[in-house]
Design a protein that fits this description.
By secondary structure, the chain is mainly alpha-helical. It is built from seven helices and three strands. A hairpin with a 4-residue loop joins strand 2 (about 125-130) and strand 3. The longest helix has 18 residues, at about 30-50. This is Integrase/recombinase.
C-alpha cells in the first residue's frame, strides 16, 4: 500500500514498533519521520476524504468559470464570484440570469418578406425560406 503498516498502527494509537522509536527519542518523533508520515497521509487523503481536496476543488472552480464565461459572463463580472465556496444554488442562479427559462426563451419566427429588412437590422437571422413570401427567422443572440 500507500502507507507503511507501522504508520497505520501508530496513527490508531496501538503499541508497536513505532512506539519503541517514539519512546527512545524521549517522547518526540524525529522531524524526518513526521515528514514521511505526512507525505504518506497526503498520498492516502483522496481515499479517506469525503469532500474534494485542493486539486479537485481547483478543477471544479475552473470548469464553473469556463461554463459561465461560455454563457456570456465577462472576466470582470466573475471577478467578484468566490468559486471555491460556491454552492449549487448560487451557480444555478448565475446560469439562469444568462439563460432564460424555457417559457421565456425566444423562439424562431415566421415572418413576411416585407418585414425582413427591419428584423435583420434588429439582429434576427434567416434560417430558411418557406416560400416566396415567408422566411423562418432565428432571434438575436443577445437581446
Amino acid at each position: 500500500g500507500k502507507v507503511a503498516h507501522d504508520y497505520r498502527v501508530f496513527w490508531m494509537g496501538h503499541k508497536g514498533s513505532m512506539e519503541a522509536r517514539y519512546t527512545t527519542n524521549k517522547g518526540r518523533l524525529p522531524q524526518s519521520l513526521i515528514d514521511d508520515m505526512r507525505e504518506a497521509y497526503r498520498r492516502c487523503e483522496p481515499l479517506l476524504s469525503t469532500i474534494p481536496i485542493g486539486g479537485e476543488r481547483d478543477a471544479q472552480s475552473k470548469i464553473a468559470k469556463v461554463m459561465l464565461m461560455g454563457l456570456g459572463y465577462t472576466e470582470e463580472e466573475l471577478s467578484t464570484v468566490d468559486f471555491d465556496s460556491m454552492d449549487m444554488a448560487t451557480f444555478q442562479e448565475l446560469v439562469t440570469k444568462k439563460v432564460p427559462s424555457g417559457g421565456s426563451r425566444a423562439q424562431q419566427r415566421l415572418a413576411h418578406t416585407d418585414e425582413l429588412p427591419g428584423l435583420l437590422k434588429e439582429g434576427w437571422r434567416v434560417v430558411t425560406a418557406v416560400n416566396g413570401h415567408q422566411v423562418v427567422l432565428e432571434p438575436p443572440s443577445h437581446p
